[in-house]
Amino acid sequence: MKRLLIAGAALSLVLGGLIGHAASTLTPDSVLLNGAPCTITTNGLSSAGSCSGAFVQTSATPAPTPTPTSTPTPTPTPAPTPAPTPAPGGLTPLYAATSFWNLPIGPAPVIDPNSAGMVQTAIAGAAGSANFANTSAWGRAMVFSHNSDPLYTVGCSMYDCGTAISFHIPLGATPETGSDHHLVVINLDTNEELDMWLASFSGSNWSAGSRYLTAANGWGALCAQGQHCGAAVAAGFAAFGGVVRPEEIQQGHIDHALAITVSLSRSGLIACPATHTDGPSTDPNSIPEAARIQLDPAFNVDGQSWPQWQKVIAHALQTYGAYIYDTGGSMAVAGQGNQNGGLVWSSIGVPDGPSLSNLPWGQFRVLQIQPC
Q1: Taking the complete model, does pTM exceed 0.85, yes or no?
Q2: pLDDT value at residue 268
Q3: What radius of gyration, in Å, describes the C-alpha atoms of the chain?
Q4: 3-class SS string, 114-177
Q5: How far apart are CA 305 and CA 135, in angstroms?
Q6: Is 188 exposed, middle or buried (0-12, 13-18, 19+ CB in 10 A)?
Q7: How far from chain centre, in Å, is Cα 133?
Q8: pLDDT tens for each residue of 254-288
């Protein structure tokens, strides 16, 4: 949870609540593709055109040279960014295959020397309140858009407001109902992602406390590893990174790392791949935001009498682990909310905000932490 100081007082942390905060302004990359004009000379006569790299073969007996007719050089059309290709079952993949979100841990990870202390204090010590944050209040609100949707200039009132942002947002898009009011909009025509904190729609205008653009098919954070910048979530990650979608539970596997909040996050340490932190604790056994935790792969998940949705989450925690992405009032695994339609959690047997306290939190480990 991003901690904000407003009028000298810190906002209270509530169950699963996440407050965005930012440190700098980002300018999205852009690519402009231009044709290469050239001059073609034939029998002493020149004409302008666009070179395609093709060869022209002359005939054995050249025909009389006609009087050349001037043809306007066509204006090149920028190539569109390809839309994400849905996986089997129609699930649109997010972030690059090389993103830290999408890379499995592997068979022999390096464990942090203080793993046991951090697990005992910051992870197992919070097991009683562990939950799956998939409600309309705290589940991440996300909606897909297209260039045919209305284009809004998104206002900004608090952080990183120096860059003007316009984005296509579908009518009826709804932020989270909790105090953070996050809303993620992913344009399938451009692969751009708009992350908003304190998002609101009034009259005919969208605004936010802070808002950022990133690539939905990119690295998965707002700036490159080693750089420091703000974002809609505390660690500087893309706001939908690590979020569990109902379609993933339905298909029986999650193919990326998860995002999780803790209440005892460390102060002052930006751990890779984070680009920012708001951790408040000086306890040496607190855990930094962006630390990656993993459920012991030797633990027999399938032998447990858990509902199937919980086993799917546990298997992902073994294969991909989870990144601490924010500070919250409880330890919560991030799930998509039901605010904007699509597959509803209850239709696949997942209740709203279920407890995860029965996961073996004491059998997690923290992978080696590197300052960033």
Answers
A1: no
A2: 84
A3: 25
A4: CHHHHHHHHHHHHHHHCEEECCCCCCECEEEECCCCCEEECEECCCCCCCCCEEECCCCCCCCC
A5: 24
A6: middle
A7: 16
A8: 999 999 999 988 988 888 998 888 888 899 999 99
Give the pair of three-digit tokens for residue 7: 């009028």
Q: What is the pLDDT at residue 90?
A: 63
> Per DSSP, what are the bridge partners of residue 262?
327
pLDDT of residue 54: 32
Residue 264 C-alpha from the chain's centroid: 23
Q: pLDDT tens, 182-192?
A: 999 999 999 99
Residue matched to tokens 């344009």: 187
Nearest Cα to Cα of residue 331 among 178, 181, 141, 122: 122
Specify whether the CB–CB gap between 41 and 25 falls below 8 A. Answer: no
Q: Specify the amino acid at residue 292.
A: R
CB 358 within 8 A of CB 130: no
What residues of the chain score a pLDDT lower than 50? 1-88
